[in-house]
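Board notes (copied after class):
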Amino acid sequence: MRILDMRIADRVARLSLLFAVSFTIPFLSASRAAAEDTVSGSFTARGTTYKLSHVYVRREPSNYDQARTVVVVLLTDNPIPKNVLDDRYRLSLTDLAREGKIHGVSVKIGADRKPADTGFTYAKEFGGAGMNRADQHTFEPKVLDDSHAEGKLAGQGAYGNDKWEYTATFKATVGTLK
């Protein structure tokens, strides 16, 4: 009876290890990809400057032409929760900005490697989020393909007398909107 108990215990231990490893590897891969994403730069809203330390990049359909795609680059001073990043419209970013939890900018890059469509400026100084235009940004790409985006983004604008500006150098893996 003891030999049978030891065999069962051995199998349970092996299955537990296999189970743990099979669920851990995907998380390690995801965290490794996120660790490769880097940004350096700053964002200033109404005279207050924030260090940009997080970058998120995804490909999604253009707002104006569903047949073409754009690459959306989101630069922020603080991390964004996964459920907000996975949301198609990312409406909760406005709430996070309104609460002072994030500051930054989103910019859309077209197939021609130039800013396209409209993006958003996120800051508590502006009551959450404000829309920005493609002509308020510049992009100097190093790499922009289906899997990687790298380069320098900069921009400036105003909402009435309230000015904003940013500059950032980034490198990131391109995700896809699900």
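Comment from the instructor: Strands lie at 38-45, 48-52, 54-61, 69-76, 104-109, 115-123, 128-133, 137-144, 148-159, 162-176. The longest helix spans residues 2-36.
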